[in-house]
Write a structure and sequence with these properties.
Largest sheet: 4 strands, antiparallel
Radius of gyration: 24 Å
Order of helices and strands: HEEHHEEH
Strand content: 5-15%
Helix content: 55-70%
Number of helices: 4
Number of strands: 4
Structural class: alpha+beta
Length: 185
């Protein structure tokens, strides 16, 4: 089940991402903004030549190489541990890798030449003065996937802590029984 969930998101996220980007590209001009909720949420069509938040613009090859390596590593890991991976973990990895694929498609094909493209971003939240970034479905998938993975790690640590605590309590109880038995002798 986990493997199916992983591949559903690995393939589904880029499809949804590309459909939304094609809709924006076909119906808006670069730089155009459409307020859906004035000063809170707009659709603003931009090209992002860098990574998240426009960092490292002009270094697309770095993102292509790193994204490719990460997607291959995540997929190999999920296939390797397929019987042991929890559904939430598989979902998180599928979202991260699927989001990476969505943005890689842009960097590969949405430029004047192959591998010279920019990522299409359009979700523009303006409700907070500190928030200046415009993003897309792939970015959301990566961020939510990382958050879900962090949650799985925290949940595993809590479960492990509870087991250790229960084991310690059990061993203290056993020691107490032994001491009580010795005092009766």
């Amino acid at each position: 089940m986990s493997l199916i969930l992983f591949f559903a998101f690995l393939l589904g996220v880029p499809v949804i991402d590309q459909i939304t980007k094609l809709i924006v590209d076909a119906n808006m001009t670069l730089g155009q903004t459409i307020p859906l909720w004035e000063d809170v949420f707009h659709i603003t069509y931009i090209h992002n030549e860098g990574a998240a938040m426009g960092m490292l613009s002009g270094h697309r090859w770095v993102f292509l190489v790193l994204s490719t390596a990460a997607i291959i590593a995540i997929t190999a890991y999920v296939i390797y541990v397929r019987k042991k991976i929890a559904p939430l973990e598989a979902l998180s990895f599928g979202m991260i890798a699927g989001g990476g694929i969505g943005n890689m498609i842009d960097r590969t094909f949405y430029g004047e030449t192959l591998f010279d493209g920019a990522v299409i971003d359009f979700f523009d939240f303006r409700a907070f003065s500190f928030w200046k970034w415009i993003f897309n479905v792939a970015d959301i998938a990566v961020c939510v996937g990382v958050g879900l993975y962090a949650l799985t790690v925290i949940m595993a640590e809590v479960k492990d802590y509870q087991k250790r605590k229960a084991k310690a309590a059990l061993s203290i109880g056993e020691e107490h029984e032994e001491t009580t038995e010795e005092s009766h002798d």
